[in-house]
Amino acid sequence: MVSGMAFGMVSGARHLWASVAALAVMSAFPACAQAPVKTASGPVSGVTAEGVESFKGIPFAAPPVGELRWRAPQAAAKWTATFKADHYGHDCMQEPFGGDAAPLGTSPSEDCLVLNVWRPANAHGKLPVIVWIYGGGFVNGGSSPAVYDGSAFAKKGVIMVSFNYRLGRFGFFGHPALTAADADHGLLGNYGYMDQIAALKWVQANIAAFGGDPANVTIFGESAGGGSVHMLMTSPLTKGLFAKAIVQSGGGRGNLMGERRLHEDLPNLPSSESLGVALAKKNGIEGTDAAALARLRALPAVAIVDKLNLANMSSDTYGGPMVDGRIVAEDPQAAYLSGHYNKVPLMIGANTADIGFNFAPTKEAAFAPFGSHIEEAKAAYDPMGNFPVEVVRYFMGMDQMMIEPARFVASALATQGVPTYEYRYGYVADSMKAEWKTGTPHATEIPYVMDTVKAKYGDKLTAADAKIADQTNSYWANFAKNGNPNGAGLPAWPQYDPKVDVLMSFSAEGVPVAQPDPWKARLDVTAAVAK
Question: What whole-number distance in Å separates Cα of residue 117 and Cα of residue 508?
Answer without folding.
Answer: 32
